[in-house]
Amino acid sequence: MAVYIHSSVCHSACGNSYLDQSLRFTTEPNTKLEFATSIDEEQQNIRFFAMDQVPLDSSEARLFNSLTTVVKQLIKSSGLKPEELAQTALLLGSTSLDIGTLRPSEDKALGLPKIDRLSQYLQQKFKLHPFHLVINTACTASLNAVLYGKKLLEQTNIQQVIVIGCEFYNQLTTKGFHSLDLLSSEQLLAFHENRQGLILGEGIGALLLTKTQPQQKNYYRLMEGDSACDTSSLTMTAEDGSHINTVMSQAIKKSGLNANNIDLVKVHGTATYNNDIAEYNALISYFNSPPPIMALKPFIGHTLGACGVIELALLDYLLAKPTIPVADYISEQAQSIMLPFASADHAMSSFAHVLVNHCGFGGNNAALVLETVQS
Amino acid sequence: MKMTLFNYAYFSHSRALDNKSLRQQVKQKYALGVRRLDNFTLCALAAVAELGTEIQAYKKLSLISCAQYFSIELIQQMLLDLKQNRAIRPLDFVATVGNAANFYIAKEFSIDGSNLFIGADEDALTKSLLLSSLELNADKEAAVILLIWQETEQERFCHALLLGDTQEQHNKYAYQPNLKYIDELSTMDLPVVLEVNL
């Protein structure tokens, strides 16, 4: 049974794909965060990719308004009727969820909201099927949500699945990544030999997965994926790329394909030393001659658990465009680029099979193969 | 969707129990690596240990875990540190990701299949059994360890279920459709064939 990306919406630093005629792919972060990471330290300037046109704060109102807006936009663009929404399950992937809105409570043993607060809110707001849950596997969260959404469609009587990836600015995440010394003070240079680390971003992505073929000219069929835990380290995957290799090769094999069938790899590409070298090693060990790669984090930052769905939504958006975004540093510093990137003058729709790769804290690595369908 | 429940175990501790005491308890009883682990993770490790050596019989194991809340003590402490402008400790921060507990469990018990941490409150048992069934359908020779945490203000429980694909020879086992309450498992004769539907 085939499963498709029927519709998508994303709201990131590039703009809102439902409202904006053309998203803006620029590598310059749109926000500078200024705070002291502890009482003993001086003020830090931390670069950040905030959602476009949404004033930055960590309030509940901002979180719920922007989340509601994107899901509403997805429902409008998909044309789902109320009786169809009642048959639509919801899976939400995120790393930090609503943590920015929480206040510590020393009085109560259970002072926190439940993990599925956001998915429950959306299920009730839009009168969706009672099956909703949150997947929280760090940076692979929303890609895992897509993988399990696909399985739900294939094996149950659920008719549609909305998959959300969301990540919102909050101090805990920013200070946490700063404490790990993973942040770049300049640019996010994915797959550059002199990369200096990641830049965080926030955003919301929403996909509607269906068993019915979409009506548009080009669309994605989800082939197979794989996801597993690399137990070598809590904070990084094996640098030799062996675990990423395993997950990628399983996804490709389960899709009935081999290395020669993959035309493009959309890398995780966080620009940390470890992530990029691990992905690089995985790609050169699996492919005799790696296909061109594509990276989206230089334009939206690392949106953590949301990156799976946000980046899939961007790929879906790009299917209708004649070119793909390629960061300037790729051509300006070509001698320092680890693997060849796809060139901008290739339409997204020209890549028949795309491998999508994601890695996360807590050891979770995930991969998915997309097939481009041209109707 | 059917699956066979081969074994069930649980571990619980008082919420008032401090981390050092729980670490000592788990280490002494189960001989597990417990360094730097929070109570949420320790409870789950102990629950899996209670399943016994039966889990080693499977060539491939996947792990699905389900909780209403994150590690409350850890998150509360981080939020307090943030409020009081204390430095965030890197490993404490990493430990707050939902699947940190899953990492330690996978490492301790050599679980190299799928590894999923989900948040669910209402119908948590049905949802997590359904996900387990989706997983088992993908690989009939594998087993799934399903963990479900439950918490009150006084106590934390972690329930561990060892689930496998239902084969023809399992027809002789008792059949339990639409299991509503996880506590019912402690009184059942196992193995039992579970059925879950949306």
Automatic annotation (TrEMBL), chain A:
Q: Which GO terms describe its biological process?
A: fatty acid biosynthetic process
One Gene Ontology term, aspect cellular component: cytosol
This protein's pathway reads: Lipid metabolism
Q: One matching Pfam family, short form? A: ketoacyl-synt
Keyword Transferase set for record: yes
Domain Ketosynthase family 3 (KS3): start-end pairs: 1-372
Q: Provide the GO MF annotations for this entry.
A: 3-oxoacyl-[acyl-carrier-protein] synthase activity
Q: Which family does it belong to?
A: Belongs to the thiolase-like superfamily. Beta-ketoacyl-ACP synthases family.
Q: What is this protein called?
A: Ketosynthase family 3 (KS3) domain-containing protein
UniProtKB/TrEMBL annotation, chain B:
The organism sits in which domain of life? Answer: Bacteria
What's the protein name? Beta-ketoacyl synthase N-terminal domain-containing protein
Native source species = Paraglaciecola arctica BSs20135
